[in-house]
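Regression test case RT-17, inverse folding.

Input:
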């Protein structure tokens, strides 16, 4: 469910409902579309008073082209709230700007409560995923597609084609999601016994 720091009463009500809904496993922030700064006092209050007590992870739009939520500022937010799990969408870089922004930001401020969603076109044929794995580790990357903006199938093919070990592919495909989003760990497996996770 989407929360907005400038609409705290509504966000608090939605988060309270989300806690008891098994189909909702996290909170989404979108500072670019919501027109707020990721390090604003309103965001701090939302996380302190509403999201943190609910125990839900936070996924946020993050990108070089979003001055109100570049990866360095997102990592600073996550460092302020170490008990909350954070997911930086779009590999923390988005579509434009330097492809090594997330790598450099992670070197300066590694956060054990942060994961990166690979749902961006920048994941394809640029080495962005591989470089982030080298610096942050394969346990920090989550499979993602940014659906419905993009079709999911090419992202699954990308993961299969990455020149990384099967262990690392398994981490990205589903194991890391179980760590980043604890509510998924209790979900039933598919008919073949394999848990299916899709981060969109």
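Golden output:
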């Amino acid at each position: 469910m989407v929360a907005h720091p400038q609409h705290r009463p509504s966000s608090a009500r939605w988060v309270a409902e989300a806690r008891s809904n098994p189909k909702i496993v996290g909170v989404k922030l979108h500072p670019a579309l919501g027109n707020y700064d990721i390090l604003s006092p309103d965001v701090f209050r939302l996380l302190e008073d509403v999201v943190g007590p609910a125990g839900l992870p936070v996924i946020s739009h993050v990108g070089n082209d979003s001055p109100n939520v570049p990866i360095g500022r997102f990592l600073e937010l996550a460092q302020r709230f170490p008990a909350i799990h954070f997911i930086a969408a779009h590999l923390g870089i988005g579509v434009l700007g330097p492809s090594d922004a997330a790598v450099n930001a992670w070197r300066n401020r590694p956060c054990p409560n942060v994961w990166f969603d690979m749902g961006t076109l920048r994941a394809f044929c640029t080495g962005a995923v591989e470089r982030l794995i080298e610096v942050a580790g394969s346990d920090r990357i989550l499979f993602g597609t940014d659906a419905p903006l993009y079709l999911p199938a090419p992202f699954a093919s990308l993961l299969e084609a990455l020149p990384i070990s099967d262990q690392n592919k398994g981490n990205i495909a589903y194991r890391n999601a179980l760590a980043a989003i604890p509510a998924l760990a209790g979900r039933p497996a598919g008919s073949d016994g394999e848990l299916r996770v899709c981060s969109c």
